[in-house]
Write a structure and sequence with these properties.
Number of helices: 19
CATH superfamily: MFS general substrate transporter like domains
CATH architecture: Up-down Bundle
Number of domains: 1
Largest sheet: none
CATH topology: Growth Hormone, Chain: A
Strand content: under 5%
Order of helices and strands: HHHHHHHHHHHHHHHHHHH
CATH class: Mainly Alpha
Length: 428
Amino acid sequence: MSFWQIWNMSFGFLGVQFGLALQNANMSRIFQTLGVDPDKLAILWIAAPLTGLLVQPIIGYMSDRTWGRWGRRRPYFVAGAVLASLALIGMPNSGVLWVAAGILWVQDASINIAMEPFRAFVGDLLPKDQVTKGYAFQTFFIGVGAVVASALPYVLTNWFHVANTAPAGVIPDSVTYSFYLGAIVFFGAVMWTVVRTKEYSPEQMAQFHPEMESSGEHVSSGIAGFFRDFLNMPKVMMQLSVVQFFTWFTWFAMWTYATTAFTQHIYHTSDTSSALYNEGANWWGVCGAVYSGSSALFAFLLPMIAARTSRKAAHAISLAIGGLSFISIYFISTPDLLILSFLGVGVAWASTLSMPYAILACTIPAKKMGMYMGMFNISIAIPQAAAGLGLGFFLTHFFEGKAVMVLVLGGVSMLVAAALSLWVKEVD
């Protein structure tokens, strides 16, 4: 496929990540504004991995078996975009904790409906020698979307003078308007891909992926078939899942506790209605933009590094840089120096979003691409669920309430993932 064809098929991920980045940068802030104690944040955040655990395998299984006027994956893009955009509008108007928690479940489920088919989209439409490039494009758009979304409250506050503080229990306008803009971008970007990209028909897919017919494999049906395929997943998928456990434990720790770590460790406040707290929360958004921008730029270096070494070596190097960057946050006392740490975090984020999928896409049958990509999300959801259940306990009983230590723990976990990456047996 040409440059612009890959560009168009990947552009929708800008919108998907715009919504995810708003969620990742602001949900802890919203929960704390509504009165949640820091040690309870992780259990509320567990909505995200649990919805992914349920939704992505189902959507992958269903989209493998879908074909109609709008194609195979695109109907799910549209459904997810509509539902997620409505949830983004509703979130800053939730008003009370139980409503915000409920909307988070809906919002994350909707994002997953749109996101999972995008992963399979690359395997559907690109030959194997372009798969790494395809996931690099996705990572680029993920980075661009997350840069703007993460920095949006800061930009609205400092460039357009939108209020960044509000009475106790009220979400600031800078956050509210960011979510409104996010709904527009999410829907618009996904629809760009839906309109500008044509999917292959089942007959064309059989020609494009001749192994679908020659392998003799059939698409399993029903619950029994689903679990049979799960139990017979490719060996490399099992190996990558172990790496994913320690990787995504770290990302969950960051999204859940970065706001609290910044406001405690750097800004020395826990008063959610104070200007200092909201300044610190905005600065976490800026650092979110930094790591996202770093990942967008590094995404195009990853295929070159992988070509000179291997995909697993490129992934290991990237995760090691990220792990050390997380640990460095403990030794920083001024906001500006956090930029350096999050440049390194972005290197790990770029690889997390591309290398495991590039390794996996070259090993799984084309006719089961969506299902196995959905199953692979289990390796993302389980470590986040484990972190959601355990990090609050660690924060209270081992870290004396110091949220920065959760980020250090995440750094150690990512170094373990880097070492385990070298154990993966990838297929060329």
